[in-house]
Amino acid sequence: MTPTRPGTPPDGAAPGAPEDAGRPWAPAGRGTLRIVICDDERMVRTALRVILEAEPDLVVVGEAATGPEAVSLVRSLAPDVVLMDVRMPEIDGIRATEQILATMPEPPRVVVVTTFENDAYVHDALRAGAAGFLLKRADPDELIGAVRLVARGDSLLFPAAVRSLAAAAARTAGAPRAAAARWVARLTDREADVLRLMATGLSNQEMSERLGVGPQTVKTHVAAVLAKTGSRDRTQAVIAAYEGGFMRKD
After folding, report:
1. Where on the phi/psi map is residue 36: left (φ > 0), alpha (ψ -120 to 50), or beta?
2. Crossing angle, helix 204-211 and helix 189-199, to 10 degrees?
3. What's the rounded Cα separation, in Å, for the pair 179 and 229?
4. Which helix (H) or strand (E) holds 122?
5. 114, 36: one domain
């Protein structure tokens, strides 16, 4: 578990971060997004940190190499965003995400970082409450954009990939659950429209323009959809829409 800061405090390197010795220390300023990177490969963590800290509004405040370290570090540092490798030692990224989201009163936004977008682990992580996923081969601009996107409360949705993941899960699980059928029946027509547009990856502003209603009205409908589907965020709602048979999987 490696807490880090951009630099070295006046009395030397931050404890547990000898590789940062000699870098001038400065606290994260107002408006800066604080990030924790969780990956068992040090080279991956280093590469992500170099990309992120090249941006003036992003700072990596810690790194973890195992699932338990990730949970402990995130609870301690309370970052804004966590980049979570889906396959972590001791406990995987799914369980770590669940523990973080279940035990923190104001949990960070978790982005799953994975090698393969069709990995069943990704689907499980999204169901666990991750705000989205990102491929390890993503361009630096995609990584930076993803962090900023989820930090402001949006979900990192890739409609085709989510549809594929949900379809694979449905084939394994069988018929839609009765609970899903119940929430589908409770949706109003406008809420159903909003959920369909959410599944295409549209933002609230884009849905507002498509539906011809105000952004606040869309926000109200999104909140109702989340409540009725029992979802933490838009990503979980879209997963539920596919799993419950509300959205077509083909």
Report:
1. beta
2. 130
3. 9
4. helix 120-128
5. yes
Ramachandran category for residue 78: left, alpha or beta (phi over 0 → left; psi -120 to 50 → alpha): left
Task: Say yes or no: 13 and 122 in one domain.
Answer: yes
Q: What angle do CA 30, 108, 2 make, to 5 degrees?
A: 80
**pTM of the full structure:** 0.67
Amino acid at site 171: R
248: in domain: no
- Count CB atoms within 10 A of the CB of residue 106: 5
Task: Decide if 165 is inside a domain.
Answer: no
164 assigned to some structural domain = no
Which positions ≥6 away from 101 have C-beta within 8 Å? 107, 110, 128, 129, 232
Count structural domains, the chain: 2
250 domain residue, yes or no: no
Same domain, yes or no: 95 and 131: yes
| Nearest-10 crossing angle of helices 140-151, 42-52 | 70
Residue 202: give the domain boundaries.
Answer: 176-243
Q: What is the distance between the alpha carbons of residues 17 and 5, in angstroms, rounded to a whole number?
A: 9
pLDDT in tens, the chain (250 residues): 555 444 333 333 333 333 432 233 334 445 789 999 999 999 999 999 999 999 999 999 999 999 999 999 999 999 999 999 988 889 988 899 999 998 898 899 999 888 876 667 777 777 778 888 888 888 899 899 989 988 887 666 655 555 566 555 555 555 455 556 678 888 999 999 999 898 877 888 889 999 999 999 999 999 999 999 888 778 778 878 877 778 765 4
Q: Kindly give the interhelix angle for 189-199 and 215-229, rounded to the nearest 10 degrees.
A: 90
